[in-house]
Amino acid sequence: MNALNTTDAMLKESTEPMEKIKTDILIIGAGSGGLSVAAGASQMGADVVLLEGHKMGGDCLNFGCVPSKALIAAGKQAHAMSHGAKFGVTPVMPEVSYAAAKDHVHKVIDTIAPVDSQERFEGMGVRVIREFSKFIDAKTVQAGPYQITARRVVISTGSRPFVPPIPGLDTVPYETNETLFDLREQPEHLIIIGGGPIGLEMAQAHVRLGSKVTVLEGAKALGRDDPEMAEVVLNRLRAEGIEIAEGQIAEKIAGSAGAIEIHTKDGSVFAGSHLLMAVGRQPNVDKLDLEKAGIEYDRRGVKTDMALKTTNSKVYAIGDAAGRHQFTHVAGYHGATIIRSMLFGLPAKIREDHIPYATYTDPELAQVGLTEAQAREAYSDKLEVVRFPYHENDRAIAEGKTEGLIKVMIVKGRPVGASIAGAHAGELIQTWSLVLANKLKIGAVAAMIAPYPTLAEINKRAAGQYYVPRLFDNPTVKRVVRFVQKVLP
Question: Where do the FAD/NAD(P)-binding domain residues begin and end (predicted)?
């Protein structure tokens, strides 16, 4: 994911003679998906050209997953210092240097950056060209002084923050995820417009680092998640001092740097020192001149089939640009899928029923497959839902992390979805992604041996709940056991 092709002004004009290049695979965008394709294809013998006009590593490394998790980690350290009493540790109020926390963020980026660097990929045999690009016909892309014709083209241009046209927004300073991590001055009162994962992750990180935080959400915070699971997270965030105002649609923005006012449709006014826009993302496809290549797209991204082919059969689109799930791991999955098709000519289609996602608040929130509401709509009375609470897990008790629960949706012995709210939910959900990916039955998890004491036992205990009515509450089973006990020698 990256910020490729965000403005025509960024397309470099050149007076140099045009160099024409022919290649097997041309990749537009060096984010997660593009790098996955470039690495795999070049190491298996294909001739690969990779175009990137902005930063190698794309959004995830530079503006998204990596810096946000680094800032969250800083917030966790601060929070732990002031919440040790229940463990016999005297709480202290941490002295937070917001600028130093941002130094930590950039150190993390710098540590990971060599893995995504131009030098590394050139070492693999990839030709890396640092230019923005656009199609000039169905099989040719122009990038600065280069015209590249390829047997296959991959659009992996990622996405950028969506900034809605709220009246007055252009008159005040505001942050997005592309600018927030360069901010050195700690916000006294951060107002966040958007109550999704990005907004709430940054809300908790900032309140733990000492800022006052207000989140404005036009509908329901964490609205796409299971409401019961989302409530676990929202209750904790509110308990930590974050104001979460739902049903608040921003109608007008006024003020100046350090004194910003958000006026909402119901007449409410929210004032703060800084503003973060976190209302969603939009794909970076509008500056590619896709029409010249016969490629259809809309505001959600490039239109593809399940093989990720566009309406131009020689061009693929992956990751955020493909208008599907906007996650780094999905872009990588897309990349691995199309390599099978491009390099070997084999059929390869994506699935979406086994894709997990997580919100990295504390506690975390994770989902794979269908939520309970979706499963009930799809399967009606065939559905069984099993549950297990964190507060009955010994490791969670020992670490004081007893908030949360797991729910698993099961149809005829086969899981179709899992929802987890609680500590390390993003790690625990991987078991259920494995189950759904391989169409395993619930017995596979019930038979798993988890080391004691671990949070992973939550998955096993949830699976075990499926058998409780079948074994322990079943009169027939009890009669059989009594009979066998009588006849055994």
Answer: 24-335
